[in-house]
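Section 5.1 Outputs to date
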Amino acid sequence: MNPEDLKTYLDRLITNDLKISTMIWGAPGIGKSSIVSQIATANQLEFIDIRLSQLAPTDLRGLPVAEDGISKWFPPEFLPQRGRGILFLDEINMAPPAMQGMAQQLILDRRVGSYIVPDGWFVWAAGNRKEDRAGVFDMPAPLANRFLHLQVEPDFESFKAYALGEGVHEQIIAFLSFRPTLLHKLDPQQPAWCSPRSWMMASSLHHNGLDLAPAIGVAASSEFQAFMLMYHTLPSLTPIFEGKGSQIPFPIEPSARYATVIGLTVHATDADRAYHAFHWLIQVATTEWIQLFVSDLLGLMRSRGQLGILAALIDKDPSIQKFLQDYRQLVAS
């Protein structure tokens, strides 16, 4: 499943209060822990992220303390004591077998030593796969059988929707729209390689005028620099947003077209600018480019509270109405 499918599945587990231990499998850097954190925030749940590979068994079980001649285990402070939330056991299969055995008690019995997981908490976990060249241990069959197993794969459309909402640099989004296979490309020979996580870091570097190679590797950084060379050929977007773009042609090169459409999407900060950009594309671009623009734009307009205003503007434009009618007929045929 892609990240959006994973969000939907996890959200339904919470909505239906299904406290079934759940294991999320996926390549490094695709945002497994970030997705779980977002789900917790969206559902107003606490979120505790425990990296099992960094703990010893006594860190999870707690320390023995003598009381009245009896040894009692005092649980660690990071385990939840009350309320509702998600207890997330990250990197579970990078933990050594002894640690996985301790985690098995937490997953199977919802307790370890004298500690008991509160009723309002979900217990989920995540791990990398052997084929991703991660330093993982085999998960014991009894432990694996206690989980639901969800496989998540990198997906550019899911990443783009997230990136547009998080303010990722538009040139990063435009480049990946042109070269989506570089969203996640593991290079076992290099310490820096492409993943959704490293592209988020690359965006921060690019915002500050720094080289992207330390985040995404030399090869991908070189491709990005070549992509940047064509930016001087892009049309000025300001006249388009002002409704004065009738004499501005749509670029010819695919890379420039992607950059133009993404630029229009990112800078359509209100319904009026979005409407003028939509109207211009109707006049100069073919259906696939208009569809690319609209599919990204609608989510942004909704998040900015501008969707209703945009719909009213579109409703008064005969050319956009004709496009929408022709497009619906095309899809239905």
